[in-house]
Write a structure and sequence with these properties.
single chain; 105 residues; mainly alpha; 5 helices; rod-shaped
């Protein structure tokens, strides 16, 4: 009877795989996850407007005849149609909402 139990217990697959918290199991789990390759920014297509599109916006004679604040708004509207955020960089006479402050270190 003892021999029969010993044979039966030796046949049962005890601990054939490492436990969930063992180093062997965790190493196997980490190795199974594929590491993504770094994506080059040059791999995707160009998403901003072309130089010709931007030139056409800035050299529009109707817009150039407008005063500076209206010209800036017209440029912002033209860029918004292209899906680009234009933050009025040339609107110096209007002043900036954020005043640069020099901080002594």
């Amino acid at each position: 009877m003892r021999a029969l139990l010993a044979r039966a217990l030796s046949w049962v697959p005890w601990r054939r795989r490492p436990g969930r918290h063992s180093a062997k199991h965790l190493a196997a789990q980490r190795a199974a996850v594929p590491v993504p390759e770094p994506v080059s920014p040059w791999a995707r297509p160009w998403t901003s407007p072309s130089a010709a599109d931007v030139r056409a916006i800035f050299r529009d004679p109707q817009v150039l005849a407008l005063p500076t604040p209206q010209r800036e708004r017209a440029w912002a509207a033209a860029f918004a149609e292209l899906g680009v955020d234009y933050d009025h960089p040339a609107a110096e006479p209007l002043g900036s909402l954020v005043t640069p402050v020099r901080v002594a270190a």
